[in-house]
Write a structure and sequence with these properties.
Layout (H helix, E strand, L loop, with lengths): L3 H6 L4 H22 L2 H13 L2 H12 L6 H13 L11 H8 L2 H11 L2 H6 L2 H13 L2 H12 L8 E7 L16 H6 L4 E2 L5 E3 L5 E4 L2 E17 L3 E11 L1 E3 L9 E8 L6 E7 L6 E8 L2 E8 L4 E8 L8 E8 L2 E6 L2 E6 L9 E7 L11 E13 L3
Helix pairs in contact: 3-9, 5-6
């Protein structure tokens, strides 16, 4: 059974959940980039200097400076005194040197500086320029955002994880380095595709994987084809099928033990069974992250040789009207199923302890009608994460 909180609490809108997650990750990338930038290093160095005791002493000294207390004033006074003692061509000793210095541009510049009002004098200094730059930068939008974000630091959760798998289906064909288009054991044992005993559609080798608007569509359609079917008693047998379907898996490219596994998916309103699931070397352990069947959405787990199972379900109609983000959070002692970030199911017993791979499939079961065909399960993106350091 689905959690009561989920049943009575509703599901957040997909676009809001995805937008918030994308924004948080974009903010984190911007935060990390700015934290390592020369711009921030310069500001912090400037802040350290401007806030230092040495800087405060230099500023205080500049503001207290006065011409009358300066060496320049003493020399000019001496020069004026000596000027009064000149008689004819006779000049006091050292007068010429003193006159040259007092009338120099450097002396007059220094005198002008010392006769300014304290605030005006300070404004001409390098210290004032540094202080003004510091105060301007401190109010800048980027630095205000950085320090505000640093104080709140909303990235504690996402920085614990590293992305291990990402597929956005942005090309025009399936990336075969990531995806295989048949059941793993069919490829391993037969070198070809096959279908299960309770299905009347055959998963073509990628022919039913179509691309539209940067999304993958696994299509089920009425179409006659020859292929193999697995019978529990008789093994693989050649058969004729009236329907075809689609399947992709990461069995050859990506398997992982523990982590977060999620996909943005839209189910079709038909009798087609559509599933996002995870499996290991055999038929079990098997986790249905999300499976739409008989107008119900299932989150299921099968283990212990198939003898143990845990199944939760809810109405499936809403999941055919829009995309939803289905996810599984898998830790050593717990499995948590979520839809748009809201917990749907939790499992703490029989938790798998082996690597598993991702599968997306569509199939028309023996009991199902072909009403609504062709029908497509649409996948916008698939992502996986693991805890850093694991």
């Amino acid at each position: 059974m689905a959690s009561l909180a989920f049943l009575f609490g509703g599901i957040p809108a997909t676009n809001k959940v995805e937008s918030a997650d994308d924004q948080l990750r974009a903010d984190y990338a911007s935060f990390v980039e700015f934290e390592n930038s020369d711009e921030l290093k310069h500001f912090l160095a400037l802040e350290k200097e401007v806030s230092s005791g040495d800087f405060a002493m230099r500023k205080k000294k500049i503001l207290k400076e006065s011409y009358k207390a300066s060496e320049e004033y003493r020399k000019e006074s001496r020069y004026n005194q000596l000027s009064k003692k000149i008689k004819g061509d006779s000049k006091p000793e050292g007068f010429d040197e003193l006159e040259k210095e007092v009338n120099s541009d450097a002396f007059q510049k220094r005198k002008h500086y010392l006769t300014l009002k304290p605030k005006d004098r300070y404004a001409t200094t390098e210290e004032a320029k540094k202080e003004e730059e510091y105060l301007t930068l401190k109010k800048s939008e980027k630095l205000v955002w950085y320090f505000k974000t640093k104080k709140k630091y909303p990235f504690k959760e996402i920085e614990k994880w590293e992305e291990t798998f990402n597929e956005s289906f942005s090309g025009s064909s399936l990336d075969t380095s990531k995806w295989m288009t048949r059941y793993f054991w069919g490829d391993e044992l037969l070198g070809e595709s096959y279908t299960m005993f309770d299905e009347k559609s055959f998963p073509t080798d990628g022919k039913n994987a179509e691309f539209y608007d940067k999304k993958l569509r696994l299509v089920t359609r009425k179409e006659e084809v020859e292929g193999k079917k697995w019978h529990p008693q008789n093994g693989f047998m050649q058969d004729t099928f009236d329907y075809t379907s689609g399947l992709i898996s990461t069995a050859r490219s990506f398997r992982q033990k523990y982590g977060i596994f999620k996909a943005k998916v839209k189910m079709s309103p038909s009798d087609v069974t559509q599933a996002f699931y995870m499996v290991s070397g055999g038929l079990v352990p098997h986790i249905d992250v999300a499976k739409l069947e008989n107008n119900k959405l299932f989150a299921s787990y099968f283990w212990n040789g198939g003898n143990s199972r845990s199944i939760s379900k809810t109405g499936g109609a809403k999941f055919t009207s829009d995309f939803y983000i289905f996810s599984l959070e898998w830790s050593p002692g717990k499995l948590v199923w979520k839809i748009n970030g809201k917990t749907f199911k939790t499992q703490t017993s029989g938790v798998p302890q082996e690597e598993m791979y991702l599968v997306f499939s569509t199939a028309l079961k023996e009991w199902a009608s072909d009403k609504g065909l062709p029908a497509a399960m649409e996948i916008d993106w698939v992502r996986a994460y693991k805890l850093k350091g694991e």
